[in-house]
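Late entry, evening session. Most of the bench is empty. Finally got around to the prediction I had been postponing all week. Sequence below, unchanged from the version circulated by S.P.
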Amino acid sequence: MSKKIFGKLVPLLVQKQQELGRKLRIMEVCGTHTLSFSKTGVRDLLSPYVELISGPGCPVCVTNQSDIDQMIAYAEKEDIIVTTFGDMMKVPGSRLNLYQERANGADVRVVHSPSEAVELAKKYSNKKIVFLGVGFETTAPSVAVSIKRASVERVNNYFVYSAHKLTPPALCALLEDSTHQLDGFLLPGHVSVIIGRKGWTVLEEKNVPAVIGGFEPVDLLTSIYLIANEMNEKKRLIRNNYPRFVREEGNVKAQNLLKEVFSVCSVKWRGFGTLPYSGMEMHANYQQFDAKKQFAIEPLKSRVIKGCRCGEIVKGKEKPFACKLFAKVCTPENPLGPCMVSSEGTCFTYYQYEQEKESVGM
């Protein structure tokens, strides 16, 4: 099936390449897509015709440094147990990361779901349990469920630091950047399960080719075909190439839950600065569970590692190879920037699958 699709795709890509006088520049927004392109070899297959550009699809990577430092600062409080998903543990703060804080005696615990953090709050009623909420529309509903549960069960020592972000505003910001030449987007499947095809209609207003895609080789190839084909249309529509999971309206129940528990706000992104209406903060009705509102912590002076290019990498302006730290002093074992930490991070994927190809000139 993949060979048949590739046979149809190549003539179309050659045609578009001749029309443009260059390779197509397509951004895969999701970090899992970045990993799939490299791991399956599809990136290599497409490389003569398409430049695949990794976008802001890793929630840990786009979290602003000031938020990272504030979250780590909770670990230094004796009466607080910090709970988090595992990919946050090695994210570098301006001073230490959470692994190092735990080694110094802080109570930091990896959980597999926010509900597990609520259970810890019930078990340790003399402690404050802070869950670090980092993610996009995909993971935010499970955090909202935990907050509602804490409210119903009157678990008054459970708190969330919300660093959740909305994906479409970041893509709009990229399109408004006149120095960024993009021919189309491969949109994230997991986010689209929640927001639906309709959640991306703001991109239709920008008239940019965009396709929601899955993660298997056949998904990747057919999505690229649809993007290239959509470039021929005067009026570009958002195409759903992941209909086995993504519906037109998305998960309406999850959307309503997010609207109930969170309010849309302007937040800072790594590399982007402040983006209007791109974040989720606790709704006024649930502010008793908002760690930001309930605990006054002295703001830290954040610093970014000199030479780290994560800010440009998450915008697709640079590839990891452009960073002088990449694969030298910055590795998955010793990450100096968040793009090397998460399995969804571009630097992590390129370290695992692409650096040998770069060294031999592929």
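Two things to note before I forget:
The chain has a mean pLDDT of 94.
The chain is about 40% helix and 15% strand.
Will write this up properly tomorrow.
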